[in-house]
Specification:
Helix content is 77%, strand content 0%. It has 103 residues and is mainly α.
Length: 103
């Protein structure tokens, strides 16, 4: 663990968190791409609940980028309003946890 801390210049738990966020956002992005593709081909779709859970557990940025890039779920209020709200809540929690003062 010490080697990882020295390599990245941040504590080991932070490295794990950063890697997790990268992976879950890639998952969110791919989930939007796959669901859009399935929608175009009239195939079985990913349940909206699963897409929202991916956003809630940290994949909100990937989901938002996927929504925008693939023009997917952009007419569904729970997505075009909900996912940005999830992201804002995650940012607020991160600021509180990291004790970053912005006022």
């Amino acid at each position: 663990m010490e080697a990882i801390t020295k390599m990245f210049g941040v504590p080991f738990p932070a490295v794990i968190l950063i890697l997790y966020l990268i992976v879950i956002n890639i998952v969110g992005f791919i989930a939007m791409a796959v669901d859009k593709s399935k929608a175009k081909h009239k195939k079985w779709r990913t349940p909206e609940k699963k897409l929202l859970i991916i956003a809630i557990i940290g994949g909100s940025v990937g989901c938002l980028i996927g929504m925008d890039l693939f023009r997917h779920k952009t007419k569904h209020k729970k997505f075009y309003v909900g996912v940005p709200i999830i992201l804002m809540a995650q940012i607020v929690v991160a600021l509180i946890v990291l004790k970053i003062k912005f006022f």
